[in-house]
Amino acid sequence: MENNKSNLDKAIEAMHAEKEANLQKSKDYEVGYGKPPKNTRFKKGQSGNRLGRKKKIIPISLEEAIKLELNKEMTLTNKDGVKEKISYYNLLARSLVQDAIKNDGPSRKIIIQSKNIFKCNIPEAIKFIDERNNPVEVDEISDERRQEIKELLCHMLDKKLKEEES
């Protein structure tokens, strides 16, 4: 029993000695404003934000500015209390259709008379915005290859739309 007590006393003394040694080390370096403790600093060659701040996108035209704004998302809570993210583009379309159903004249007129509203290619607009947000260096693609890719994407989109309609 006494042997255990002496071991415990030795362990406590060792902890106190280690604490005092750490205090002596910390007295060599004064911690304060602009002087964080050395053990909490970034290591050499390491930063806190490796990717850096995202660049602000400056739209080239009014059309691009509108596309950028419509692509942003908003969190809504539905009747059941479930939160869902919805883009402003979908929100605009939803409210436009609901207003037209309620017999709102201007909304109905926009939907019936506007030909351009249905020509807007949403995936293409999103792709355009993503490319603008995340520029990637790519080797130049020939016009023939671009046409092939465009036809392939249109074919895939048509196929997807037909599947959704079924």
Structure description:
α3 packs across α4 (about 105-115). This protein has 2 domains: about 1-40; about 55-135, no CATH class. About 55% of the residues lie in helices and about 5% in strands. The chain has helices spanning about 1-30, 60-70, 90-100, 105-115, 120-135, 145-165; strands spanning about 75, 85. A two-stranded antiparallel ribbon has the order 1-2. The chain is elongated. The protein is mainly alpha-helical and about 170 residues long. It starts with a helix and ends with a helix. It is built from 6 helices and 2 strands.
Quick synopsis:
With 166 residues, the protein is mainly α. 57% of the residues lie in helices and 6% in strands. A hairpin with a 5-residue loop joins strand 1 and strand 2.
